[in-house]
Structures are given as C-alpha cells and as structure tokens.
Amino acid sequence: MPNEELTKKEKRLKKREEKESLQKKRQTFSSFFQIGVVFFLLVGVGAVIWAISVTSSSKQGVQLGASIQPDDWVKGNPSAQVELVEYSDFQCPACATYHPIVQEVVEKNQDVLKFSYRHLPLQQHQYARLSAYAAEAAGKQEKFWDMHDLLFQNQDVWAESDNAQVLFLSYAKELQLNFDRFTQDLSSKDIEDKVQKDYESSVRLGVDHTPTFYLNGKEIAPQNIDDFQKEIDTALKEVQAKGSQ
Q1: Could you tell me which of 190, 219, 242 has the C-alpha nearest to residue 71?
Q2: Strands of the 113-119 sheet, one edge to the other
Q3: 46-57, pLDDT tens digit by residue?
Q4: How far is CA 210 from the centre of its chain?
Q5: Could you give the C-alpha distances from 214 to 62, 138, 152, 209, in angstroms and in order?
Q6: Is this model's pTM higher than 0.90 or not?
Q7: Which of 22, 92, 214, 222 is the least crowded, having the fewest Cβ atoms under 10 Å away?
Q8: How far is CA 19 from the centre of its chain?
Q9: What ranges make up the beta strands (E) of 52-112?
Q10: How far is CA 156 from the centre of its chain?
Q11: 215-228: b (≥16 Cβ within 10 Å) or e
Q12: In 10 A of CB 191, how many CB atoms?
C-alpha cells in the first residue's frame, strides 16, 4: 500500500509537472507571438515613416530639380536670381492660351527674371513631339524663340492638319532658316535626345499636366498676369532678403 500510494503521488506529481510545463510552453509561445506582432507593427510604422520621408525628399527634389540648367533655352536676364520654368506642349490648347500671358510677364520683368521653356510632349497630342523637334531644330540656328512663338500662334492650323510637318517646314522658310539644315535637324538624334531629356525631367518632378510652372523651384498655379506678378514680386523680396543677411 505505501508503495502504491507513493506511485499515485508520483503520478500526480508527474501530471502536475507536465501541466506546468505545458503552461510554460503556452506562455512562451504567447510571448513570442506578442513580440512578433509588435515587430510587424514596428515594421509597418517604419514603412509609413519611410514613405513620408521619401515623399518629403521628393518634394525637396522637385524644388532642386526645377532650377534652370545650362542647356535650357532662356529669355530675360541670364544672371537674374528669380527663375521661372515652364513645362509645356506646343499642341496643348491651355499652353497656347498662356503663351501671350507668359510673354508679357517675361517682358515686363526682363531685368529681374530669367525664363526657361521645357518640353513636355503629351501622348494624346499627335504632333507634340514633332513640334518640339521643330522648335529645337530652329534653335540650332538661333531661332528657337521665334519658332516657339509661331507654333503657339498657329496652333489651331497645324494641330488640325493632316501633315503638320509641311507647315513646320513653311515656318522654317518664313524665319529664313537654312532649309536643308533645318530638315536634317528635324530628325536628328541629338534633338530627339534633348526633347526626351526635358520629358524625363518632368517625370522625375512628378509633372502631370501642361502648362506647369516653377518659380525658384516652387510650383505655382497662376491664372493671370496679376497672379504671376505677385509670385515674382514675392520671390524677388525673398531673394533680396537673403542677400542682405
């Protein structure tokens, strides 16, 4: 009997130990599970913080990337500290509407402003790239801005044409360009690369519509001449304030 009682006690003790061991395993598993949940939550929060950081960096990059580059076409004062960059498409109706406004703004502020036009040929416009090539080809003969103006002024004509290239060739003759050279440049690789470079810069900046304007690296959305002037005056004051510090 004593041995039997002892055996029963041993069995009860063993069961108790097994039960305690099982509870410990469950607690350990629960602890690891909680740690795992916390880990994935931290990873998720970290991802959100990273995304915000990237977005912030991207916005900062937009400001830096929108500054005028040495190979940009520039009007106004080349040494001016106030820079206006336009991303535009010669076949874009809104861009044609803004054209005389931008002309007046640049002329009015030519001593304190430098203006650059960049190509953003939209896919939905049949002649967007070809018209950009025409402006660049004219630029090879120092007539970029002349062709730029003709293209916007006559947009309604060539944009609805069955063969816009014929009209672009007529504009080259009107500007008294070397016709053979213009024709050759119109399909040259370096001009194609120049337009593509502008286009790719717009992609990096996140530009998704035309016209898009940057003033000293900051995107602005002016609706008229007065809006432009207010933005320019503010930018000029900021530049002058920094210069006096």
Answers
A1: 190
A2: 73-76, 113-119, 82-88, 212-215, 218-220
A3: 433 333 333 433
A4: 12
A5: 9, 25, 20, 13
A6: no
A7: 22
A8: 64
A9: 73-76, 82-88
A10: 28
A11: bbbebbebeeeeeb
A12: 19
pLDDT-derived band at 40, boundaries 50, 70, 90: very low
Positive or negative, the CA dihedral 205, 211, 216, 220 is negative
Q: Are 102 and 224 in contact (CB under 8 A)?
A: no
Question: Which residue is it, tokens 């350990």?
Answer: 28
Look at residues 193, 143, 140 and name the one whose alpha carbon lies nearest to residue 171.
143
For residue 178, the tally of other CB atoms under 10 A from its CB is 12
The answer to whether the beta carbons of residues 216 and 82 sit under 8 Å apart is: yes
Cα separation of 138 and 90, whole Å? 14
Q: First vs last Cα of the chain: how many Å apart? A: 102
